[in-house]
Structures are given as structure tokens and as C-alpha cells.
Write a structure and sequence with these properties.
The complex is a heterodimer of chains A (469) and B (96). In chain A, 34% of the residues lie in helices and 21% in strands. With 469 residues, chain A is of the alpha/beta class. By secondary structure, chain B is mainly beta. In chain B, the strands form two sheets. Chain B has a five-stranded mixed sheet with strand order 3-2-8-6-7, covered by helices on one side. In chain B, strands 4-5 form a two-stranded antiparallel sheet. Classes of the chains: A alpha/beta (469), B mainly beta (96).
């Protein structure tokens, strides 16, 4: 433990919410430390090209990169009051006030924080189906990182499957990168009705981008199949073909009799996102289950404060709603942290909060309409078969999960004890949502009763050497 | 060096300096700034390891450091290939 004075504010996560939170806090006069795991600020959506790459043609930089530049520039204008620590993972939050972090250069370090804003983001919802562990099956987020940041084509012939406007964006980016996109499979219905796009055009970056790419896909003759899902990936050593077919429009139950099979070496899967709430839970924040927000999320008041005073949560990590909402939530959290620290008064804080709160209320309608289309339906749990791995790390099949239920397991903790599901390196991030869905399908319980796999520090594996330092 | 199947997007962006990785003893070209998983996908290698219990092939899945599917033995450490930048002379191999 270091004897350093506590930071008035520590922000964990350098995506849209974290950057906006830090910006508002330092604008109000509060000193702040911003920590992120990646080599540079931006989070997944505003991820920057590697430092070693040089842009020769600025047109290659998309709208997301430019939106990220605006946000980063705003923070940079207060550079004297903010310290940014990139390449640093947060492993634990102790007593809601001690942040334990680790970096390759600095080893493990304890940082005291008087206030904490957790802006930890979200990750692609894992949905098991036969063959989903084959190399060549990658998440929508992973495909975007490869094309946008690494400038690498993940394959030659692709199927893109899942739900939500991000599918169109990823399919469009793959097409532009020269990948032959054979089909886009949306389990839900189209989000691109004229009314929806008209309402969202100015406010909702992702939906507008999705609509633009939807047009580009139509022009390129790439079929978009609504109420369709991927049923299996086949191949010896890696994906060689993909089977897909229709799903029920209401419950997304697969109709296996009407499947088609296409040769493909890349299958991109994106069924929306799950909030990363491990640090919230370790900080002692109360969580609740909200299916429309991606699953377990921290309980918050209107100022983004969790049930632990002085601990805030903002952005997709507190409930998936996309980068536009994340920025406004971050601003509200940053302003309130500054108010709590006493650097601005209550009236001034309320005045500064009014604009982002107004924007959040305006976005709520579009957000609810999108959630209606894309929240996961029970049929997704039926994409897996008995032999399908649910837990990738510990190689636990659906049959083993159902066996645990037959032996009396009624929540995820019990399934974990009986099967090792969730005991691997990913700490259950990749099996808890689908494990819960399979448990609920077998017992008829609600997702909230299935419970969670409790996170244990360190939330990211770290070598014993680094811990000892 | 033989590049038999290069999936890199060319033009618009210049990559970093060329480096060479030793992957299972074979030289593999890469460029500074790339991650190990991107450099391997760029030459068409999708399988990165074999799962220890059932022996199934695994490759990069989440690409953002959460799923640990792309864990490889890199310079003697079990680390995530999608989070590890390439370095000249790096020794890369499959890890259980």
C-alpha cells in the first residue's frame, strides 16, 4: 500500500462514459485519475489505431473515430487537472475506496479514492450453438476491432448473425474491407422503419450508422434475413460452413427443418451486449436484473450514484444503451462527483446536469423501441444442443448443466459447484448469461432467481510475480 | 519469408516496422502495432490452441481481452494473443 494522498476522484474505464465523466469533473475543478486497460483512451467503440500505424488517407477514419477525437480533445483541454493511466487493469475495489490495479511496468498498486466512477463498458452477449467454439467464429466487437483497428480481414466469406443495428454496421465494415458477406441474419425485426430512423437520425449514432450501412448492403446485393438465426458452425479445425434458418418471430425458437448451409470461413455473432458489473459488485453496489439493459446492472439514482455513497456507475457497464447515452450519463456522474467534493455548489451542479439529463430523457424513447426489438428471447437458449459447450474455459456442455439441474441445482452458484461452469479464466463472463438461460428454461425460474457467479479478485488474471511486487 | 495468405488491408494506413515472430518455430512476418492474434489471422491461421479436456480447436473469439480463448504461450508466458503486441523475435506457440 502506498502512502500517497487519496485522489478526489478515480474514474475506471476510458470509453465514452469514462472520458465524459472525467471531463465534467475536471471542468468543475476536481482533480481526477482516469484508468484504462487499453494502450490509449477510447474504449471499444472509439478505439484508436495503434500508435505505430500512420494514417495516409484520412477518409479511412470513420465516424466513430471522429466522434472519439472530439471527446478526447475536450478532455485534453483540461490536461493539467487529469492524470490518465492507460495499460492498467483494475483488479479489485476494496471497501469502495481502495482501487487495486496492475500494469506490466508498475506491478500491483493500491490507489485511494474519495469518490469512484465505474465506467467499465460491456461485452458481446455469448450465445452458445453447435460449433460456436470453432476458430473463425468471432464476436461482432472482435470483428470490428480487427477491421477498424488492426486493419486485417478476419476471413474471406462471412455470415453475420445476431440482433441490433450493430449487425448492419459490422456487415458494412466487413464488406468495405473486401470480405464477401453472404448473409446478415437478424433474429428480430427491422429497426429501420422510416419513423424510427427519422426520430433517431440526429441523436442515435449507431442507428443512423446502421441505416447508412443497411442501404450500402442493399446496394451490394447482400441479403438481410429478419427472424433468422445461425444454427450451427461446421468445420474440421476451423469454420468451413454455416447452417442457418428461421426463428419464431415472438420467441426466436429455431425452426431446424428449414435450414440452409453455406460455405463460409468467418461467422460473426452479435446478440447485443452484457454490462461488465464485476467491479460494481466488488465495490458493494446493489445489483438488479433488468433484461432490457443487458442483465445484471447496478441500482442507481438519477445522478448515476449507486447504492454505495460516492460510487457512481455510468455507460454500458451500468446498463447497455450505447455510446450516445454513455456520454451523457458520464457527464451527469462527473458533475455530481464534483458537487459532492464541494468544488461546485448544488445550484451550479443542477444547472450543469440539466442539459445531459434532458438529452437522456429525449433518448429514452428511441432506446426503448430498440430494446423491444433486440432484448434476448427464450428461444436463444434452444440454439445449443446437449453436446454444445456452454462454458468455454472449463468445457462444460449443456447436458452437464441440465444434469446439475436434475441433481437439484436451482441457481448458478449451485451449477458452478457441480460442473465447474464459470471457474475458468473468464470468471463466468462467457457462460453466466447463457448458463442462466438454460437453467431458467429447465426450471421455469426467472433470470433474477438464477443469480450470478460472484466475481472474485483479481477480476483479470495476474501473475503471482506481479501480485507480489 | 513466404506470405501465403495475407489478409492485411493495404493502402490508407501505413503499419509499423516489420518484425518477425517465431510461431511454433516457423518465421511469421508481422508489423509493429499489431497484436499477435491479428498477425496470425493476417496469414490465415485461425486456430490458436487446443482445449485441454476435450481437445477442440480454439481461436480468437471476443477480441477484447475478456474470454481468454486466444491464450497462447508467448515468450514463455500464458497470455492473451489479442492483447499482446508483436515484438521482433517473439516466440509464440500453442498453450493448453
Amino acid at each position: 500500500m502506498t502512502g500517497q494522498a487519496a485522489w478526489p476522484l478515480v474514474v475506471v474505464g476510458g470509453g465514452p462514459a469514462g472520458i465524459a465523466a472525467a471531463t465534467e469533473a475536471v471542468r468543475a475543478g476536481l482533480r481526477c485519475l482516469l484508468i484504462d486497460e487499453a494502450p490509449a483512451l477510447g474504449g471499444q467503440i472509439y478505439r484508436q489505431l495503434p500508435r505505430e500505424f500512420r494514417v495516409r488517407d484520412a477518409r479511412v477514419r470513420g465516424r466513430d473515430e471522429r466522434r472519439g477525437d472530439v471527446l478526447r480533445a475536450e478532455l485534453a483541454s483540461f490536461a493539467d487537472r487529469v492524470e490518465v493511466r492507460c495499460g492498467t487493469s483494475v483488479l479489485d475495489v476494496v471497501d469502495g475506496r481502495q482501487v487495486v490495479c496492475s500494469s506490466p511496468a508498475g506491478g500491483t498498486e493500491w490507489i485511494s479514492a474519495e469518490r469512484l466512477i465505474l465506467a467499465t463498458g460491456a461485452y458481446d452477449r455469448p450465445v452458445p450453438f453447435p460449433g460456436w467454439t470453432l476458430p473463425g467464429v468471432i464476436t461482432a466487437g472482435g470483428a470490428q476491432t480487427l477491421v477498424k483497428t488492426m486493419r486485417v480481414r478476419p476471413g474471406e466469406r462471412a455470415v453475420v448473425a445476431g440482433t441490433g443495428p450493430l449487425l448492419m454496421v459490422v456487415a458494412g465494415q466487413l464488406h468495405r474491407a473486401g470480405v464477401r458477406v453472404l448473409a446478415v441474419l437478424e433474429a428480430g425485426r427491422s429497426a429501420f422503419t422510416p419513423g424510427m430512423v427519422g426520430r433517431a437520425w440526429r441523436q442515435w449514432g449507431l442507428l443512423a450508422d446502421g441505416a447508412r450501412y443497411r442501404l450500402a448492403l442493399a446496394r451490394a446485393g447482400i441479403p438481410v434475413r429478419y427472424h433468422h438465426a445461425v444454427l450451427a458452425a461446421h468445420g474440421d479445425g476451423a469454420v468451413e460452413s454455416v447452417a442457418y434458418g428461421p426463428v419464431g418471430p415472438a420467441d426466436w425458437r429455431p425452426v431446424r427443418q428449414r435450414q440452409v448451409r453455406v460455405d463460409a470461413d468467418l461467422l460473426v455473432v452479435g446478440y447485443g451486449f452484457v454490462p461488465s458489473v464485476e467491479l460494481c459488485e466488488l465495490a458493494g453496489c446493489r445489483l438488479e436484473y433488468r433484461a432490457r439493459l443487458g442483465g445484471w446492472v447496478p441500482v442507481r439514482d438519477e445522478t448515476m450514484q449507486t447504492t454505495v455513497p460516492g460510487v457512481f456507475a455510468a455507460g454500458d457497464g451500468a446498463g447497455v444503451a450505447g455510446s450516445v447515452v454513455a456520454v451523457e450519463e458520464g457527464r451527469v456522474a462527473g458533475i455530481t462527483a464534483a458537487e459532492q467534493a464541494g468544488v461546485i455548489g448544488a445550484d451550479e451542479a443542477a444547472r450543469r446536469r440539466s442539459r445531459p439529463l434532458r438529452r437522456l430523457r429525449a433518448l429514452a424513447g428511441v432506446r426503448a423501441a430498440l430494446d423491444d426489438i433486440s432484448y434476448p428471447r427464450p428461444g436463444l437458449a434452444e440454439l445449443a444442443t446437449d453436446a454444445t459447450l456452454v462454458c468455454r474455459c472449463e468445457e462444460v456442455t449443456r447436458a452437464e448443466v441440465q444434469g446439475a439441474v436434475a441433481e437439484g441445482a436451482r441457481d448458478l452458484s449451485a451449477v458452478k459447484l457441480l460442473t465447474r461452469l464459470g471457474m475458468g479464466a473468464c470468471q463466468g463472463r462467457n457462460c453466466a448469461p447463457s448458463g442462466a438461460a438454460i437453467l431458467c428454461a429447465a426450471t421455469g425460474c426467472g433470470s433474477a432467481e438464477a443469480g450470478r457467479i460472484n466475481p472474485r479478485p483479481p477480476v483479470k488474471p495476474v501473475t503471482l510475480g506481479a501480485l507480489a511486487r | 519469408l513466404v506470405v501465403w495468405n495475407d489478409h492485411r488491408l493495404v493502402g490508407a494506413v501505413d503499419r509499423g516496422w516489420p518484425v518477425t515472430l517465431l510461431v511454433d518455430g516457423e518465421p511469421v512476418p508481422a508489423f509493429e502495432g499489431e497484436t499477435v492474434s491479428a498477425a496470425l489471422l493476417a496469414i490465415g491461421r485461425r486456430g490458436l490452441r487446443v482445449a485441454p479436456r476435450l481437445g477442440g480447436p480454439r481461436g480468437m473469439y471476443c477480441g477484447i481481452g475478456l474470454c481468454f480463448e486466444c491464450v497462447m504461450s508467448i515468450d514463455g508466458q500464458r497470455v492473451r494473443a489479442c492483447q499482446t503486441p508483436v515484438r521482433d523475435g517473439m516466440l509464440v506457440g500453442g498453450a493448453p
